[in-house]
Amino acid sequence: MPSPVFTFIGPDSATHMAEEIKDASITLPRAMIIMPFVQTFSIATEPHIGTSVMTAILITLTTFGCITNVATASRQMFAFARDKKLPFSTSLAHVHPGWDVPLNAIAVSYCITILLSFINIDSTVAFNAIASLGTAALISSYIISITCVAIKRCCGEKLPPSRWSLGQFGGPINMLAVL
After folding, report:
1. How many CB atoms lie within 10 A of CB 95?
2. Membrane-spanning regions, if any (predicted)?
3. At what angle do helices 51-82 and 103-117 cross, to 10 degrees?
4. Range 8-34 burial, b when 16+ CB lie within 10 A, else e
5. Which residue from 25, 17, 14, 57 is spatially nearest to 163, judged by alpha carbons?
6. What is the C-alpha to C-alpha distance for residues 148 and 118, in angstroms, rounded to an integer?
7. 113-150: b or e for each residue (b if 16 or more CB lie within 10 Å)?
8. Percentage of the chain surpassing pLDDT 70?
């Protein structure tokens, strides 16, 4: 069973596509704040339509979850390639005119995902170890980012200007998030 930490991948994937979103500094925080309310409403209504519908919903959510994972990976690959930090950077950083997306990075991400899906792990212990490694890496990336911001706040350094801020609650929220 996947770790609950993977629920962060949905809103996290949106941040990796921020360069493609119009007025991202306002749009992304709004979407991240609204999402839990939509989920709470969905849980409160408790629809009992049947196994087939619930299975279809599960398959759809899994499919879209895979798409957001590939979208996140491809945008990260594009960003690293754009900064010349990956092999074949020129090709991976190419944005196709008219499509305005890094199609090569998306294709490579899909290929890697497909190849990884062919790995057959007979041992549940080995599978859980690999899944736990992914979970630990994801949590570590959040902790490192939040800790860097918290250190800047504690040292009295100015944070970069932004249109959306937690204001005076930012410091305590950063500290709570790291715990």
Report:
1. 15
2. 56-80, 101-119, 125-151
3. 130
4. ebbbbbbebbeeeeeebeeebbeeeee
5. 25
6. 38
7. eeeeeeeeeeeeeeeeeeeeeeeeebeeeeeeebeebb
8. 76
Two tokens, residue 44: 């409160």
Q: Residue 171: is it exposed, middle or buried by C-beta count within 10 angstroms (0-12/13-18/19+)?
A: middle
In this prediction the pTM is: 0.50
Closest CA to 35 of 51, 50, 13: 13
The model's pLDDT over 44-72, given as tens digits with 9 standing for 90+, comes to 556 544 455 656 666 788 788 888 888 88
How does pLDDT run across 104-123, given as a tens digit for each residue? 999 998 888 788 777 766 77
